Amino acid sequence: MQLLPSRQFQPLPILLEPLFELAGYRCAQGSGEFCSEGRLLGLPRFRIAGPEAGPERIRVGLFAALHGDEPAGAAALVRFAAALARDPQRAAGYELFLYPVCNPTGYEAGSRENAAGRDLNREFWRGSDQPEVRLLEAELRRHRFHGIITLHTDDSCDGLYGYAHGKLLNESLLRPALAAAERVLPRDRRERIDGFSAIDGMVGDCFQGILSAPPDQHPRPFDLIFETPGQAALESQVSASVAALDSILAQYRVFIAYAQDL
Fold first, then answer.
1. Burial class (CB in 10 A: 0-12, 13-18, 19+), 83
2. pLDDT digits (tens), the chain, 262 positions
3. Cβ contacts of residue 11 below 8 Å, gap of 6+?
4. What's the rounded Cα separation, in Å, for the pair 48 and 40?
5. Nearest to residue 123, comparing CAs of 95, 142, 143, 103?
């Protein structure tokens, strides 16, 4: 497995320190613990409840660093949480669950796979024996999110793109998110991305076994994967991801308001 330069990776305690500092008025929790190579590790989870803006808050799960060699998504969720603390209205109507480091052993090693050598993002809902996957599946079952956003980095592309899974709502959310992030980084406009057909940076199909809602969850949540180009500066990737997250939450809030008026 290829290791990235350690300078791109903040040690986990330093990366997550700003989130724990917010815990005085935000709820900071763990999603469970597991053993790896004789060590007891946890999957950090942080809950942010925005101001009420309706009868029920919209639950959204935000996931990053499923591949340990992709630190930009983790840093973006930390940056996003800090921004919401300064301006809670950006999360109005939402209950957000942030999982900034879903693969802590891979993150520590700077490797795509976990310590067992497994690509966690091919293991979901397949009876995986990997503890990280089991813990995350339990979270997905427990919270039954209205929306799922996963942040990734692609070293093989030169621009931003995302997976909409061929769903109209996903495309309607992803299109303005890419436009917002494009103010920071260019978009990947190739006709084939990662082996799949793409239009304007939106990919309809995807790999099997990726992080997603439980197969029996109905109605299905919106589900987006946002990808930044791995060769871009880390700061630019973080800024682009935060812009995309802001756009998705704003657009989905409009969609819900419109649907309630139908």
1. middle
2. 334 443 467 888 889 888 887 755 455 667 778 888 778 888 989 999 999 887 889 999 999 999 999 999 999 999 999 999 899 999 999 999 999 999 999 999 999 999 999 999 999 999 999 999 999 999 999 999 999 999 999 999 999 999 999 999 999 999 999 999 999 999 999 999 999 999 999 999 999 999 999 999 999 999 999 999 999 999 999 999 999 999 999 999 999 987 765 4
3. none
4. 26
5. 103
* CATH number, span 26-261: 3.40.630.10
One-character DSSP codes across 213-238: S-TT-SSPPEEEEEEEETTS-HHHHH
Report the DSSP pairing between strands 196-199 and 161-163.
unpaired
Tokens representing 157 are: 């592309």
Plot region of 12 (φ>0 → left; ψ -120 to 50 → alpha; else → beta): alpha
Scanning the structure block, which residue is given the tokens 């005085």? 24
Neighbours of 156 (CB within 10 A): 10
SS3 28: strand
The answer to pTM > 0.90 is yes
Q: Spell out the domain ranges in the chain.
A: 26-261
